[in-house]
Specification:
By secondary structure, this protein is an all-alpha fold. The protein has 5 helices and no strands.
Length: 158
């Protein structure tokens, strides 16, 4: 696959994921009486993602160089954990600054937004499953097999 196509798919995926996350984030802000438009939710989530990556790189690049230089490969997991925690701090700091709330409220708003996103996505999956089952013809095949084993004069008197 071409490198440009891979980059395009990554960018499209990030745009779609951010748009879906913005729906839950906006609903979550509404629960906590924060009036945020859909566009503001996308901007806050995008800036939080960029800040998270920036904070992680600040820790990860020097840490990786130290691990490589001193051949301490057993500390790579610790380095990843520390970078992830620092990245999460940067992520929630962006949300906190964007919504002008405290740390705990920023974390709770994001977590409630994720629960809403999970419910939305699971609803979509269930609806698609029902549509696929309904139009797939599997229930007709099962029904035909069952009804062919029943004598035709005794239908309904099993």
């Amino acid at each position: 696959m071409d490198v440009i196509a891979i980059i395009a798919f990554v960018v499209m995926g990030l745009i779609i994921i951010t748009a879906i996350n913005a729906i839950g984030f906006k609903m979550s802000c509404g629960i906590f009486n924060k009036d945020v438009s859909y566009f503001e939710a996308i901007i806050i989530l995008t800036s939080a993602l960029i800040n998270s990556i920036f904070y992680e790189l600040i820790v990860l690049i020097p840490g990786a160089l130290i691990v490589i230089y001193y051949s301490m490969s057993k500390y790579i997991l610790l380095l990843k954990i520390i970078a992830g925690v620092v990245g999460s701090i940067g992520f929630f700091k962006s949300i906190k600054d964007g919504l002008e709330v405290g740390w705990i409220k920023a974390v709770v708003i994001y977590m409630v937004g994720n629960v809403i996103n999970i419910l939305i996505l699971m609803g979509i999956v269930v609806i698609l499953f029902i549509i696929g089952w309904w139009f797939g013809g599997a229930e007709h095949a099962a029904g035909n097999v069952i009804s062919s084993q029943i004598p035709s004069d005794n239908i309904g008197t099993i």
